[in-house]
């Protein structure tokens, strides 16, 4: 097989592995990973994917469908670097070596301090390793998991809707609806794409939100974010949250960093903050907002009910600076997407896959 043909075969198989990865559970502590095993001639011998924590990883799942010796000399195409540690399952790097795999192609490095190093183990065993194939596509697919694994906390998005002058409600407290149906539909899609959605107890007591993701007809999407409530006040009996498909997670909110670490341990990799100026401001001021979504309505309201509370900025030199990453027209409204300009999200190793 020529070098060009082999490269094209690798790319095609990686795209198939990514399709297989999408079959895995959308939420949980482990990443969604797919694997395709190719013969030396490039024919597909086996396919596998990871079905959740405690089940075989994608590589082992694919190997399990082959008779002994059938993988000798073959190539394994995997979306994530094969793991190198023993958790609930054994190390995939060793399984590939034991099966006689001659070549491994993967897209994204495993960021874990214990699970990483699979590529090194494979090379030491004489296996050819190719890294970075379709890294951008697979990295985008695994973005939330990779972030949570590197930083030991969920990726946090803070959202609010406001008038042009930054008001989230009128002076009498009314806020429905500042934005139009297109903007609200976009919010529900983003809710459904998040592992969890968070509000403060003040919002629960004032608005009694359902915190579900719904379509234009009010029907629930299949994937629902887990509700998270920050604050110590009790949620009243009969609140809409009690009818949510998932039981709400309660967080005291006194130490946001610790709360986020706990959510990550529970398998929450992305958190959508949607509850009130106080909660939003707390995450912003603490430097824990990785993305900001601002839905701007073409209206002026005035008054005291601003979308964001005090951020501890005493002078303009201390302003929290952001870079715009997207600007979207949604009906009459605008969605502004921004990320912290000097976001020093240093990679922090973790334990990787379980």
TrEMBL record:
NADP(+) binds at residues 161, 177, 207, 276-282. Residues 8-130 form the CMP/dCMP-type deaminase domain. Coiled coil: none annotated. This is Riboflavin biosynthesis protein RibD. Its cofactor is Zn(2+). Gene3D superfamilies: Cytidine Deaminase, domain 2 (3.40.140.10), Dihydrofolate Reductase, subunit A (3.40.430.10). Zn(2+) binds at residues 57, 83, 92. It comes from Agromyces flavus. InterPro entries: APOBEC/CMP_deaminase_Zn-bd (IPR016192), CMP_dCMP_dom (IPR002125), Cytidine_deaminase-like (IPR016193), DHFR-like_dom_sf (IPR024072), Eubact_RibD (IPR004794), RibDG_C (IPR002734), Riboflavin_Biosynth_HTPR (IPR050765). Pfam families: dCMP_cyt_deam_1, RibD_C. Substrate binds at residues 175, 191, 203, 211, 214, 274. Converts 2,5-diamino-6-(ribosylamino)-4(3h)-pyrimidinone 5'-phosphate into 5-amino-6-(ribosylamino)-2,4(1h,3h)-pyrimidinedione 5'-phosphate. Keywords: Hydrolase, Metal-binding, Multifunctional enzyme, NADP, Oxidoreductase, Riboflavin biosynthesis, Zinc. The keyword Oxidoreductase applies.
């Amino acid at each position: 097989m020529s070098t060009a043909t082999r490269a094209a075969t690798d790319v095609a198989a990686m795209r198939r592995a990514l399709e297989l990865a999408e079959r895995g559970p959308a939420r949980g502590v482990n990443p969604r990973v797919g694997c395709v095993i190719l013969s030396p001639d490039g024919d597909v011998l086996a396919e596998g994917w990871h079905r959740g924590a405690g089940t075989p990883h994608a590589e082992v799942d694919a190997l399990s469908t082959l008779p002994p010796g059938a993988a000798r000399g073959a190539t394994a195409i995997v979306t994530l670097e094969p793991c190198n540690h023993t958790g609930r399952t054994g190390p995939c790097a060793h399984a590939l070596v034991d099966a006689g795999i001659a070549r491994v192609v993967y897209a994204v490095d495993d960021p874990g301090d214990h699970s990483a190093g699979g590529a090194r183990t494979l090379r030491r065993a004489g296996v050819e390793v190719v890294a970075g194939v379709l890294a951008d596509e697979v990295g985008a697919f695994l973005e939330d998991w990779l972030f949570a694994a590197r930083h030991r906390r969920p990726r946090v998005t803070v959202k609010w809707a406001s008038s042009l002058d930054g008001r989230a409600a009128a002076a009498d407290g009314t806020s429905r609806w500042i934005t139009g149906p297109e903007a609200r539909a976009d919010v529900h899609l983003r809710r459904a794409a998040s592992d969890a959605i968070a509000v403060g107890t003040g919002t629960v007591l004032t608005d009694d939100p359902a915190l579900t993701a719904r379509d234009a007809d009010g029907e629930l999407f299949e994937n629902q974010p887990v509700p998270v409530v920050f604050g110590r006040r009790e949620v009243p009996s009969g609140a809409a949250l009690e009818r949510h498909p998932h039981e709400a997670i309660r967080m005291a909110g006194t130490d946001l960093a610790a709360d986020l670490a706990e959510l990550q341990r529970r398998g929450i990799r992305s958190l959508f903050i949607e509850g009130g100026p106080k909660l939003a401001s707390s995450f912003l001021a603490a430097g824990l907002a990785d993305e900001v979504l601002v839905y701007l309505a073409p209206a002026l309201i005035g008054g005291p009910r601003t979308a964001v509370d005090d951020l501890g900025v005493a002078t303009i030199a201390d302003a929290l600076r952001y870079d715009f990453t997207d600007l979207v027209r949604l009906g009459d409204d605008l969605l502004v997407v921004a990320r912290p300009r000097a976001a020093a999200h240093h990679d922090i190793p973790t334990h990787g896959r379980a």
